[in-house]
UniProtKB/TrEMBL annotation:
Broad EC category: hydrolase
Name of the protein: Ribonuclease
PROSITE patterns (alphabetical): RNASE_H_2
Organism for this UniProt entry: Candidatus Nitrosymbiomonas proteolyticus
Binding site for a divalent metal cation: D9, E10, D109
Cofactor note: Manganese or magnesium. Binds 1 divalent metal ion per monomer in the absence of substrate. May bind a second metal ion after substrate binding.
UniProt domain RNase H type-2: residue ranges: 3-208
Top-level lineage group: Bacteria
One GO biological process term: mismatch repair
Localisation: Cytoplasm
Amino acid sequence: MREGHIGVDESGKGDFFGPLVVAACYVGPEHLAELDGVRDSKKLADGVAKKLAATIKRTCPHKVLTILPHKYNDLYRQIGNLNRLLAWGHARAIEEVLELQPCSQVISDQFADPEVLKRRLFEKGKRIELISMVRGEQDIAVAAASILARAEFLWRLEALSKEFGVDLPKGASPAVVAAGKRFVERYGREALDKVAKLHFKTTHNVLG
DNA sequence: TCTTGCTATCGCTAACAACG
DNA sequence: CGTTGTTAGCGATAGCAAGA
C-alpha cells in the first residue's frame, strides 16, 4: 500500500432488532503496524471485534454513523429502498472521513447499485475513485470499517436490551420473533418502532 | 482430547428477468 | 400487471476437519 485509502462497511442490515450502523475508516501505510489482527468482522468473535474497534478508533481517522431504529424506520419510509438508504449512509460517512483525511480512493463491499453512491460522491465535487468489490472485507480498510460497524451495532443492541429489560437477539431467527412478542406484550406494538426495523417480514410474525 | 476454522444451510433483505 | 425464480449480500448455526 503506497497511499492510504478509505474503507466502508455496514452492520445490522440483516438484523431485525437494533440500529443500522455504517462506518468509514482511513488506513494508511503508517497505521498497518497497529492494526495487527484486523480482518473481516464476520470471522471474529464479538469480544475480539470490540477490542479491535477500540484500537482502530485510537489509530485511524474514522466515522461511525448509527441509525437507530426510530430514525431508520423514518428514513426507510422516505427513501423506500434499502440500497438508496445505504448509499446515503455510506456517502455521509465517507465525506466525514475525507474531511479528516483527504485521499483519492474508497473501497466498499459490493452492493446492488454502486452507481448511486458514485453519483452522490461526485456531486460533492470530490475526485474520488470508488472501488466496489465482492468480498471487499479482504481489504484492511474495509475490514477495519466492518469491525467498527459491528462493535457499534453490538453495543447499541446491548444498550437497547438493557433500556427495555428485554433480551434482543441478533439476526432474524425464531428467538427474535419470541423476543419481539415479549417486547410488544410489555410495551405495545407502537413501541416496536424504537427497537426494530419494521419493514422486515419478521414484524408480521411478531404482531401476527 | 480439545479448540479452532471452514463450509453448508437457513432466513432475511433487494434487484432483475421471465412468464402467465 | 402481479407472481415466481435467480442472483447476491448479510447474520446465525451446526457439523466436520485440521491443528495445538
